[in-house]
Amino acid sequence: MSESLFLDRRYCIEVTPHSNKGDEISILKNNQVVDTTPRLNDFNEAHRTCFDSFDLSHDIIELRNGGKNGVRISLQLINNGISTQLFFGKNADLTSVVIDGNNNKCREDNEVTTGIRIHDGEIIESKCKGWFIYYHMTFDRTYLSIPGPYWRDRDFTPRFCKIFKISNFFRSSC
Q1: How many CB atoms lie within 10 A of CB 107?
Q2: Cα separation of 66 and 159, whole Å?
Q3: Tens digits of residue pLDDT in 79-102
Q4: DSSP 3-state assignment of 163?
Q5: More confident call, 97 vs 164
Q6: Is the pLDDT of residue 78 over 50?
Q7: Which position has the higher pLDDT, 146 or 17?
Q8: Local structure of 7: helix, strand or coil
Q9: Among 2, 50, 42, 49, which residue's Cα sits nearest to residue 24?
Q10: What is each CA distance from 44 to 14, 31, 62, 94, 111, in whole angstroms?
Q11: Which terminus in the chain has less CB density within 10 A, N or C?
């Protein structure tokens, strides 16, 4: 089997830099750093991270800013050779996002976030996306009032959330 066929079967994330080339971006799989993009002017072309073993229904990819200097990027997920563009912003219609350690915002024309979490090919967490994950919990009711979302710069405002069971963990639609 040729190497190109093998590469097409891996799950990859491609990070493409645009303007404001700043700090490096850490790429994590299930909270473990697996790769880091170059920083500043060394980050001048697409950076691809591939996983030899990846379970779409369980594994989570996360991108985190490595400092206070933002980087505008676009993201592509590549699964079995098929590329999917991820979208950002308040209306999820922007092709790029700024990963920054501060000055985060969610607007129709721009999103600036400290990090992005991706599960099953979708953004589940960013400044404009209020999903968050509950591991190994059981619930008797479909709806539950909980504090959240809990993730770095978010508040603890109670919200009325719908809980979805996915595999061995739960996801909330807050």
Answers
A1: 13
A2: 30
A3: 988 999 999 999 999 999 999 888
A4: strand
A5: 97
A6: yes
A7: 17
A8: helix
A9: 42
A10: 13, 26, 21, 21, 21
A11: N
Q: pLDDT class for 144, splitting at 50, 70, 90?
A: very low
Cβ atoms of 128 and 106 closer than 8 Å = yes
The DSSP-derived string for 77-135 is: EEETTEEEE--BTTTT-BS-EEE-SS--EE-SS-EEESEEEEETTEEEESSS-B-EEEE
Q: What DSSP letter does each residue of 27-74 carry, written as one string? A: EEETTEEEEE---GGG--S-EEEEESS--TTT-EEEEEE-SSS-EEEE
List the structure tokens of 24: 């490096």
The pLDDT tens digits of the residues spanning 116-134 come to 999 999 999 999 986 433 3
Q: Give this prediction's pTM.
A: 0.69
Question: Phi and psi at residue 148, in whole multiples of 5°?
Answer: 165, 180
Q: Which two tokens stand for residue 122?
A: 């979708």
Q: Are 114 and 104 in contact (CB under 8 A)?
A: yes
CA dihedral sign, ordered 92, 19, 49, 131: negative
Retrieve residue 135's tokens: 């591991």
**CB of 158 closer than 8 Å to CB of 150:** no
Q: CA-CA-CA-CA torsion for 146, 149, 150, 152, nearest 10 degrees?
A: -160
